[in-house]
Amino acid sequence: MATNRTFTMIKPDAFSAGNSGAILKMIEEAGFKIVAMKATQLTPAIAGKFYEVHSERPFYADLCAYMSSGPIIAAILEKDNAVEDFRKLIGATNPADAAEGTIRKIFAKSIEANAVHGSDSDENAAIEGAFYFSQIERVG
Ligand code: ATP
Ligand code: MG
């Protein structure tokens, strides 16, 4: 089951710009089914826990401040080959490098405020989904 799921966040820049609906439309049109979804706002501490893997990177403090700066949408998505296909749909981390037609190319403002998160492995998709949602909050 986990191999067909990924986890995403619509980040504060995209949420505050009113792009959540357009991004979710792209996600659904690409064949992803929403399995769980909620709007929430992270505290700096919770953002720090989510991005703990980056705690040694120079941008970590800014990233935690940014990710807790406003509301986000967190969601679990289902599709065959979900992790890889979703990374293709969102495009490169830096929107300047993202392919035409990708979510980051269209909506991201910078390498940090890059509109969406997408899990980088099946294992992290399961960990990240469980970070936000209990089993009873998910469809199926
Ligand atoms: P995400 O994990 O959010 O899907 P990603 O896997 O493409 O993004 P990561 O290397 O995991 O990229 O970085 C996590 C996040 O940290 C990026 O999405 C971006 O918001 C921020 N980030 C990454 N690199 C930089 C950088 N050089 N300067 C500022 N922020 C950065
Ligand atoms: Mg990542």
From TrEMBL:
Instruction: Specify the domain of life of the species encoding this protein.
Output: Bacteria
Active site: residue positions? H117 (pros-phosphohistidine intermediate)
Q: Which InterPro entries match?
A: NDK-like_dom, NDK-like_dom_sf, Nucleoside_diP_kinase
Q: Does the keyword ATP-binding apply?
A: yes
Q: Which Gene3D superfamilies did the record assign?
A: Nucleoside diphosphate kinase-like domain
Domain Nucleoside diphosphate kinase-like positions: 3-140
What keywords sit in the KW lines?
ATP-binding, Kinase, Nucleotide-binding, Phosphoprotein, Transferase
PROSITE patterns for this protein: NDPK_LIKE
User: Which molecular-function annotation in GO is an example for this chain?
Assistant: kinase activity
Q: Where does ATP bind?
A: K11, F59, R87, T93, R104, N114
PANTHER family assigned: NUCLEOSIDE DIPHOSPHATE KINASE (PTHR46161), NUCLEOSIDE DIPHOSPHATE KINASE DDB_G0292928-RELATED (PTHR46161:SF3)
Q: Which family does it belong to?
A: Belongs to the NDK family.
Q: Could you tell me what this protein is called?
A: Nucleoside diphosphate kinase
Identify the species of origin.
Algoriphagus winogradskyi
